[in-house]
Amino acid sequence: MSRDNLRATLDAVEAALGHLATALGEGGFDAGICSYRQMSEIVMGQRVWAIEHGIDEFDDQFRRVAALASQVYGQLVPYVESMDRLRMLTAIAPPEHGVEPESREARVLEALDVAGRPQSISQLRNALCIPSSQMRKLLTAMVARGLVAESSSGSRTLYGAAP
């Protein structure tokens, strides 16, 4: 291996992952996280309720939903496994900005990086599924540590990458 080979590999991987992240973002993938979590909780609860009440007329439809979920799961798992390995690259290097990988602070910094522009508390809350009160405390602490910068846009407070 050479430095040139390493550079070429990392450039290609970064471009591919950037394209995938952009495509997922533009496709509303991030925006649907909370909705899909809620959907799964509701349908699982309804399935238990139907069983407890002896209602079996929806069994075939529950099976079709499960089959579709299995199909989507099968499509996503290879990507998730690959990304899980690659995300561990941070575990073998010092934490960036003094932030531990996979922490809420790291997730906020990643969300700001992906967005490419300052975000409101609501935007960050929706992207990360963190309640507003917790998001406010987290952002206040991150501003105090110099990890994010606070700015105003009209009556809204926005948070972006620290200079």
How would you characterize the overall build of this protein?
With 163 residues, the protein is mainly alpha-helical. It folds into 2 domains: 3-90, no CATH class; 98-161, Winged helix-like DNA-binding domain superfamily/Winged helix DNA-binding domain (Arc Repressor Mutant, subunit A), CATH 1.10.10.10. 65% of the residues lie in helices and 9% in strands. It has 6 helices and 3 strands, in the order ααααβααββ. It has a 3-stranded antiparallel beta sheet with strand order 1-3-2.
Secondary-structure content class: mainly alpha
The coarse silhouette is globular
Strand content: 5-15%
Give the integer mean of the pLDDT values.
Answer: 88
What is the element string, with H for helices and E for strands?
HHHHEHHEE
How many structural domains can be distinguished in the coordinates? 2
Low-confidence segments:
none
Q: What is the count of helical runs?
A: 6
Give the end-to-end Cα distance, rounded to a whole number of Å.
35 Å
Most strands sheet: 3 strands, antiparallel
Spatial order of the strands in the main sheet?
1-3-2
Share of residues in helices: 55-70%
Radius of gyration: 20 Å
Count the beta strands.
3
Structure at a glance:
This protein has 163 residues and is mainly alpha-helical. It has helices spanning 3-26, 33-52, 59-87, 104-115, 121-128, 132-144; strands at 119-120, 148-153, 156-161. It has 6 helices and 3 strands, in the order ααααβααββ.
